[in-house]
Each structure stands twice: as C-alpha cells, then as structure tokens.
Amino acid sequence: MHIGVPKEIKIHEYRVGLTPPSVAELVARGHQVTIETGAGAGIDFTDNDYVAVGARIAPAPEAVFAAADMIVKVKEPQLHEIAWLLPGQTLFTYLHLAADKPQALALMASGATCIAYETVTDRAGGLPLLRPMSEVAGRMAVQVGAHYLEKEQGGRGILLGGVPGVAPGRVAILGGGVAGINAAQIAIGMRADVTIYDISTSRLAEIDQLFEGQVKTAFSSRAAIAAAIGRAHVVIGAVLIPGAAAPKLVSREMLGLMKRGSVLVDIAIDQGGCFETSRATTHADPVFVVDGIIHYCVANMPGAVARTSTFALNNATLPFVLRLADKGAAAAMAADPHLAAGLNVADGHIRHQAVAEALQLRYEP
After folding, report:
1. Domain ranges for the chain
2. N or C: which end of the chain has fewer CB within 10 A?
3. Residue 343: beta bridge partners?
C-alpha cells in the first residue's frame, strides 16, 4: 500500500502523522510512504531523516493526496484538504465530527473511507488512540490552569500549591476518565486541593483507591457542580462521550457563582466543549474572558508539546496503521471490530451512530 503523510496546517500544530521509526516499520513490510516536505520540521525531523528510512518526499500536499491509498494525519483535514481526497481512499486521523458538521458533509461527499482515532476501541471498552492525547491534555490542563491563575495573566493571583500558612488553590475536575486522572496526578504533585466529579459511583470508588485519599471524590450532580465551581480556582472539563458532542455541564448563568480571575480549562472542546461559554481557541490566542472568568479552550492542546505528543500517538496508532496497510481498510476492519468502531464515514454515509445523532444526519450501519 502507498501511505501519504501531509504536513499539518492547523494554527500552531507541529505534530506529524508518522515518525521516521514508524515509516521504517512500514517500508520493511513492503509499503511505500510519501511525506510532504517539512512535515516533521516542527519536531526536528528533517526530510533527510525520512529519506534515510525509505520514504519519498513530495513538494506539496496535493502530490501526497494524489499518490496515496491511505492518508495518515493527526488533526482533521481542513475543507480544502478534503477536496483532495479520492473516492475509496482511506483517511486515518482524529476527526471529532460531532462538533463539525461542515467537515462531516465534506467527507461524505469525498467518497473516502474515514476512520477516526477517537472512536477506535479496545477489548476493555477503552479508546486506545485517544488515550495518549488525553493523558497529555490532562497533564497540561493543570499547568495551564496554574499559569493563568497568575495575576500577570489576568488571574486571581493564586499559587496553586499554596505555601505554609496559606491554603492551596482548589481544583475541580469534571470527569474521572483518562484526562481527569492525569490532571489529578499533576494537581496533586503541585499540592493543590483536588476534587474529581463523575457520574459513575464505581469509577469514583476506583479513583478513591487509586489516590489513597489524596483526591476527594463527589458524584457529579448539577447541584454538586454548582457548588464546586463556586469554590474552585481552576475547573477542568474532562468529560467524554465517544463520538458524541460533550454535555454542557456549566451554564453561562453558573459563571456568576465563580470567583473573578478563576480559570476554566475545557479539554472537551474538540467535541464541542463542556462549558456553555466555551469556544475553540488556538495556541496563538488561547484564552478569552467571560464574566471575569478566564477560559482556555485550545482545540489541539497536545500540539504545544508536539514532540512528546507525536511519539505517544505513534506508539498507539502504528499497530493499526500496519494492519490497515497490510490488509486494506475493508479486510482490516472486518477482522477487527475494535478498528471497525473507528469508522465514521464511508461511501458517502455516516457510519458511526453517536456521530450521526450529534449531527442529526442519517446513520447507515
């Protein structure tokens, strides 16, 4: 199979779909790989690094799309990139279609087979290709929250870890999944006062055991969240419904309960965000203020630590890329229902039920 890797073009996105070691694995199995020139430059991979492991270098993205049977990316293709997709071609990347109907419609019109990292599953019911970026985003969320609490950043002027004689800052984490757990680990390390909110009592019990009492847990009712944001200095939204739009847990009205200069970090922004006042931002302009509350809603948070993120992502995606390359998309998904769960669009139809429901489009199994 011929695999193409274009350069990512979202603002301040430096990750790349395949690293040179990943390309070497594909070439060793007899596959061809074409990389757009400069695709790895943001994380210090040169074109020569790719050539050395057997890749070809294309001068422009159009050439990558035209040559490849499968396109491997990191972020969702922009509309002008979708115009280069061919019927029957396979696209393997993050899509997050539930919050992006124009992209979904364009992918349907392309005739391509579009497999989304974020809905591929594993035997335990987890999301193995979303997990590494959730880990990165969760850990980053606390760093970001601590930074924007600083007075010079417009924050309340609070040191998250406090000092002897002065109480630490309070962190409320909405969602006890992978991102929430990783956020809690960093927040504890910074000596913050941490509470995780979740709707699963069994998950809360697991969290309680995992952190051995270092983290408080609470059932995520509307009343509990309202009380939490009234106390917290940093609120991290880390909820996820695979393939679907994120639920809105904090309304505009509820912002009035928060302390001026507090910080909201919306990890769920790729799926539409879990705060009513959220809107996607970029690393070039990451925050905005509503009613005195700082909102950080960068839609590609892990792109800020692009080298770490790229290696973490490739560790997870490479086995699936090899499977798709070796067998072709149809045969690979027929042999692996967990990979098949990643199918979002094919033959002009939405193939994932949660995506179809979120977009109010027809679902074709």
Report:
1. 2-120+306-359, 131-299
2. C
3. 115
What's domain 2-120+306-359's superfamily in CATH? NAD(P)-binding Rossmann-like Domain (3.40.50.720)
Second CATH level (architecture) for the domain 131-299: 3-Layer(aba) Sandwich (3.40)
pLDDT tens-digit map of 259-299: 999 999 999 998 899 999 999 999 999 999 999 999 999 99
Q: Answer yes or no: same fold for 2-120+306-359 and 131-299.
A: yes
Catalytic positions, written as ranges: 96, 270
Dihedral angle computed from the Cα positions of residues 136, 141, 142 and 147, in that order, rounded to the nearest 10 degrees: 120
User: By C-alpha distance, which of 281, 189, 177 is closest to 237?
Assistant: 177
Task: Write down the pTM of the prediction.
Answer: 0.91
Which spans in the chain are helix H?
A: 20-28, 47-52, 61-67, 79-82, 101-110, 131-148, 178-189, 201-211, 222-231, 306-327, 329-335, 337-340, 353-359
Q: Which residue has the tokens 């106390």?
A: 231
